[in-house]
Amino acid sequence: MILVNATFDIQASQRKNFLRDIQVLIDSSKQEAGCVGYDLYESTSVENRFVMIENWEDQAALEQHNQNPVLINFAQNVANYVSAKPVVQVAAVN
Fold it and tell me: How confident is the model over 48-65, as pLDDT tens digits?
């Protein structure tokens, strides 16, 4: 299994737009083959910090996800929402 954690620090003024657009990505991603989980969580200690936790069956499923037009569109627009560069961590889990 492949685990992806993506942390987003969002500008307060862009919170609503971020949540609207990332929900489209979540809905699309959950329909993809190989998606085991794709959930967004909000920090209780850092205001407007969100963490996406993705679980993929294997590397091939993740690579296919990276070709998803909804993901590509979101990635092209993420700079409009964030106050800092997103942090993405990828790990293989046995």
Answer: 999 999 999 999 999 999
Q: What's the CA gap between 11 and 82, in Å, rounded?
A: 5
- So where are the chain's domains? 2-92
Backbone angles phi, psi at 39, to 5 degrees: -130, 145
16 in Cβ contact with 23 (< 8 Å): no
| Burial of 73 per CB tally in 10 Å (0-12, 13-18, 19+) | middle
Q: What is the helix (H) or strand (E) element at residue 41, kind and residue range?
A: strand 35-42
Q: Which helix (H) or strand (E) holds 63?
A: helix 59-65
| Closest alpha carbon to 79 in 6, 14, 4 | 14
| CATH code for residues 2-92 | 3.30.70.100
